Recover the amino acids of this structure.
């Protein structure tokens, strides 16, 4: 059995999967703040899974961790995980001595891409497009995570799609993230609420002019990211994930309209059938934790997926 953890800014989702890739146990823990507290959260979550299954921790084969921030390729070192209070941390070095298990670490969106691939038909090229506070994608080609030469493959959030558009936190104007990132959209909305993007869709449905502009901007950014991923890596499937997936069919209605509009003017774009390639991840799916579990202690993700 392998353990996978999705370490988020507020909560950590942890699963144990069997040899067939089925989830046998799942627990959630509040994520601590700072390097020591994050490491303690990982140890606690693994222990809780063992208790849930009435097994010793030593019964697990490996632990994989998906975490925000930059993970140095081929290592377990994470840097700039600002939402966790981490400047730099070798996570395996911090937790492996206590757990007594091999530990692998990957960026959370890239881990989620592996999970989405495993939960799909497991063939071809898949892009997992995550919409949270920011926007980023993970790309899996024939079961192998593709990160590019420096690990930045999939950073479509900072692709400028309108030079005259809103200012992005990266300093450019009109980035996908400036239109569709939850943090930027909430700031532009400027009204209190627990779920600003949902509030915007509700207000747009009620005829609020400002909300309609923001809602259409969200759809514009998402559709542009989908086109970019299909045109650059020929993703056969683009899975939408993150907090925005709670909107389900409401989201796909406006995104589908944007995709249709872009296809009207171009026979080539029409031939790509973009709308048929898009899937929305079910809300609450532990896809990043599953991907982290499949990653396990191996950097050869193709081997892991083949046996998962």
């Amino acid at each position: 059995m392998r353990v996978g953890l999705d370490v988020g800014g507020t909560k950590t989702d942890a699963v144990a999967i069997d040899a067939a890739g089925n989830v046998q146990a799942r627990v959630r823990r509040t994520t601590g703040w700072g390097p020591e507290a994050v490491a303690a959260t990982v140890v606690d979550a693994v222990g809780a899974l063992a208790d849930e299954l009435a097994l010793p921790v030593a019964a697990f084969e490996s632990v994989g961790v998906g975490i925000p921030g930059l993970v140095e390729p081929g290592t377990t070192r994470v840097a700039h995980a600002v939402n966790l209070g981490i400047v730099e941390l070798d996570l395996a070095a911090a937790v492996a001595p206590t757990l007594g298990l091999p530990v692998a670490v990957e960026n959370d969106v890239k881990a989620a891409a592996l999970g989405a691939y495993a939960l799909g038909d497991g063939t071809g090229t898949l892009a997992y497009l995550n919409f949270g506070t920011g926007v980023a994608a993970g790309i899996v080609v024939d079961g192998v995570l593709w990160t590019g030469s420096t690990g930045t493959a999939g950073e479509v959030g900072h692709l400028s799609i309108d030079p005259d558009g809103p200012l992005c936190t990266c300093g450019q104007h009109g980035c996908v993230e400036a239109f569709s990132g939850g943090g930027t959209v909430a700031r532009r909305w400027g009204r209190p609420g627990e779920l600003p993007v949902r509030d915007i869709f509700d207000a747009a449905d009620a005829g609020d002019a400002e909300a309609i502009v923001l809602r259409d901007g969200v759809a514009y950014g998402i559709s542009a990211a989908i086109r970019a991923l299909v045109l650059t890596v020929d993703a056969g499937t683009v899975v939408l994930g993150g907090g925005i997936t709670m909107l389900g069919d409401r989201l796909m209605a406006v995104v589908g309209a944007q995709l249709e509009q872009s296809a009207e003017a171009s026979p080539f774009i029409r031939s790509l059938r973009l709308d048929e390639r898009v899937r929305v991840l079910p809300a609450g799916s532990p896809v990043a934790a599953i991907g982290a579990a499949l990653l396990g202690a191996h950097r050869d993700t193709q081997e892991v997926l083949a046996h998962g």
Observations:
- The chain is about 40% helix and 20% strand.
- The chain has two domains: 2-108+285-307, 125-235+243-280.
- The first helix runs from residue 35 to 53.
